[in-house]
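Feature request, filed as a ticket because there's no other form

It would be nice if the structure record came with a short human-readable summary line next to the tokens. Right now we just get the raw output. Example of a typical job, pasted below so the devs can see what we mean:
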Amino acid sequence: MSALLVQPSPELQIHIRKELNEDVNTRDSDLQAIKDWLQKQPHLPDTWDEQRIMTFLRGCKFSLEKCKRKLDMYFTMRAAIPEFFTNRDISRPELQEIVKIAQGPPLPGLTPDGKRVTIMRATLKDFETPNIADAMKIALMIGDVRLAAEEVGVAGDVFILDASVASMNHFTKITPTIVKKFLVCVQEAYPVKLKEVHVVNASPIVDTIINWVKPFIKEKIRNRIHIHQDLESLYKFVPKDILPEEYGGTAGKMADFNDQWMKTLAEYTPWFKEQENIKADESKRPGKPTNYEDLFGLDGSFRQLTID
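Raw output as currently delivered:
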């Protein structure tokens, strides 16, 4: 079985460390500082595994303050959004429904400059709109596995979104609130350095969807969304040798990559179960508890949005 995630070569690691502001001489003391901080927070778990904390440090370019904010937010989200962070068992029927119609595996290979690529697509043309929260749950489960599986860090993340099944029918069933919750998680609570988003097989509706989501996305990320008319222009960013055959690449098949990830999520079932209780306790937070309404509330202009 090939590796779930190929780790960067020693040469590439040097480049990645520069990109992540990682100093091999001080990273262990940074890790210790975060562990000490966690222990002192009455509302957060006292300990958590070192590999994942190190991934947070890398995602925050070793800014201790930023790392503390992100970790706090990560454990806060676990308590705030049970629809994402409970019942994380890939064998559950509602999650298997998603697995039947969609794939979202990170690809094993890295881009030449050390970025990890994830492709998200539907595999059926015609299907009932699923519960989108369950699809988001699986994406965040994969994210949690990657917190440990990215052993030495990567230079950033690239997402390829295949929009071939985007339709008004599916789109109108997605609530702004669930999208906001997901994007708060991805942008504020996970140590993801989102470098590029590539939309392929786009139809005219994709512009509508992107404009609808834009208010939730940080400006620097908005500027990193590329819509491709054909795959040739994608290859300028992501070389064919790490792409699957379905996208003109030579790396293997999407189904194989996805199956490998689904097996991994199944193996992680006990870990997901034990993590369910490892979350922020707002009743013990110093100062004011987090107001979830403030976090996920939508401003008026957004709520009024209707699609003609």
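Something like this underneath would help us a lot:
The beta strands are 102-103, 106-110, 115-122, 156-162, 194-200, 225-227.
Residues 75 and 279 are 5 Å apart (CA to CA).
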